[in-house]
Amino acid sequence: MESDNKELLIKKLLYRSIHRGCKETDILLGNFAIARTENFDDLKLKLYQDFITEDDMEIYDWLLRAKITPEKYQNLVIEIQQFHNL
Q1: What pLDDT is attached to residue 18?
Q2: How far is Cα 20 from Cα 43, in angstroms, rounded to an integer?
Q3: Domain residues for 22?
Q4: What is the Cα–Cα distance from 22 to 5, expressed in whole angstroms?
Q5: Is the pTM of this model over 0.90?
Q6: How many domains would you assign to the chain?
Q7: Dihedral class, residue 85 (left if φ above 0, else alpha if ψ from -120 to 50, else beta)
Q8: What long-range pairs does 77-82 form, CB within 8 A, spacing at least 24?
Q9: What separation, in Å, do the N-terminal and C-terminal C-alpha atoms of the chain show?
Q10: Which pLDDT tens digit goes with each residue over 8-31?
Q11: DSSP string of the chain?
């Protein structure tokens, strides 16, 4: 991915991570995205982009282990959990 396109995508992902509608996921995903997305490769950016289109309550339940995380997102959810010491 071109540098300019990657930078624009990261900005969009940061905004979407921070402005979700559910304050809890705003904080969990926002802080994680601010700290980590700059270092994501193209595949991980795509995965994260897909992840944040999921329903807020689903994401929140996956992060808190209230529901089983889909296999596609398991490593990402573990990374976010470790980032927040959940």
Answers
A1: 95
A2: 22
A3: 3-84
A4: 28
A5: yes
A6: 1
A7: left
A8: 79/32, 79/36, 80/28, 80/29, 80/32
A9: 32
A10: 999 999 999 999 889 999 999 999
A11: --HHHHHHHHHHHHHHHH-SSSHHHHHHHHHHHHHHGGG--HHHHHHHHHHTTS-HHHHHHHHTTSSPPPGGGHHHHHHHHHHHT-
Q: Using the predicted structure, report yes or no on whether residue 82 has a pLDDT greater than 80.
A: yes
The pLDDT > 70 percentage for the chain reads 100
Amino acid of residue 63 = L
**Is pLDDT above 90 for 3?**
no
Tokens 């990261």 correspond to 10
Q: Write down how long the chain is.
A: 86
Nearest to 83 by CA among 44, 34, 23: 34
Could you tell me the CATH number of the domain that includes residue 45?
1.10.150.250
